[in-house]
Amino acid sequence: MRELNQGSFPGGTSVSRLSVYSGVCAADGLAGGTPHLHTASTEAYVVIGGSGALQTLDARGLRETELRPGSTVWFTPGTIHRAVNHDGLRVVVVMQNAGLPEAGDAVMTFPPDVVGDPGRYRAAAALPAAASTEEIERAVARRRDLAVDGFLRLAAAARDGDPEPLRRLYAAAVALVRPNVARWRDLWERDVAAQTRHTAAVLDALQAGDGAHLLDAALMESPPQDRWGMCGNLVTHDVTHPIVRAPS
Q1: Nearest CA-CA partner of 58 in 36, 41, 73
Q2: How far is residue 176's CA from residue 169's CA, in Å, rounded to a whole number?
Q3: In the predicted model, is pLDDT for residue 37 greater than 90?
Q4: Which stretches does DSSP call E strand in 97-139?
Q5: Which of 100, 120, 133, 234 has its CA 20 to 30 A from that of 140?
Q6: How far apart are CA 126 and CA 226, in angstroms?
Q7: With contact defined as beta carbons under 8 Å apart, do 8 and 218 qualify?
Q8: Distance CA 147, CA 195 (A)
């Protein structure tokens, strides 16, 4: 049982706090984040402040869900999602498969000519590494507005009953992430699958009357780190390398 990386956040998930962008999008006048989908991971929102909406699009169609304090929603791989900020929307985000989203398990809904070209996609998705806050803010807005443009095209097709643009986006998304899958599998084995194996071993031990694993009990903490996210300003936590708190 000691093979588990005890630093992993429970269930092999990750957790962050999100303040959804307030800047107005040029395409439709709404404030909010960059529409995107995940190819392998489910994501959850727990709203802790403000108000807004979640626009989603999948094979079942387009919908909008009101978000207010206490709202708890989650969406599975393939669900295109766009957080809309009405008034200071703040969310705790719980993400399946800790590590994969940061490793590229997100595809933004850029127009077809961009999302279908890996080189153009990477250029459109990247933010400047060494730049002023103002320059990064402009790059974030450009990226968001381009993805909203593609999202609105997909939404219009869905309203017209045409599933082909969404299917083409899914095909392009798979092509974009496919080179990463071997690396993702290593991350998944280390963080997610290892936790499942550890829990199975704990249950076996308890059934046998063995509580030795309780001697490994620990309190852990992960300091916050500020980041520019797709949907807003993020406060993230390193869920694989936490601080183990010793007794006072």
Answers
A1: 36
A2: 10
A3: yes
A4: 107-108
A5: 100
A6: 17
A7: no
A8: 35
- Does the model's pTM come out above 0.90? yes
Report angle CA 145, 100, 228 to the nearest 5 degrees. Answer: 40
Question: CA 192, CA 8: separation in Å to the nearest integer?
Answer: 8
Are residues 101 and 95 in contact, defined by beta-carbon separation less than 8 angstroms?
yes
Average confidence score pLDDT of the chain: 92
pLDDT tens digits, 185-205: 998 998 889 889 989 999 999
How far, in Å, CA of 110 to CA of 148, rounded?
A: 7
Helices (H), 10-132: 112-115, 118-125
| Assigned superfamily of 10-234 | Jelly Rolls (2.60.120.10)
The phi and psi torsions of 230 (rounded to 5 degrees) equal -75, -35
Using DSSP's 3-state secondary structure scheme, residue 153 falls into: helix
- Would you put residue 128 in left (φ > 0), alpha (ψ -120 to 50) or beta? beta
CB-CB neighbours of 12 under 10 Å? 24
How far, in Å, CA of 178 to CA of 126, rounded?
A: 19
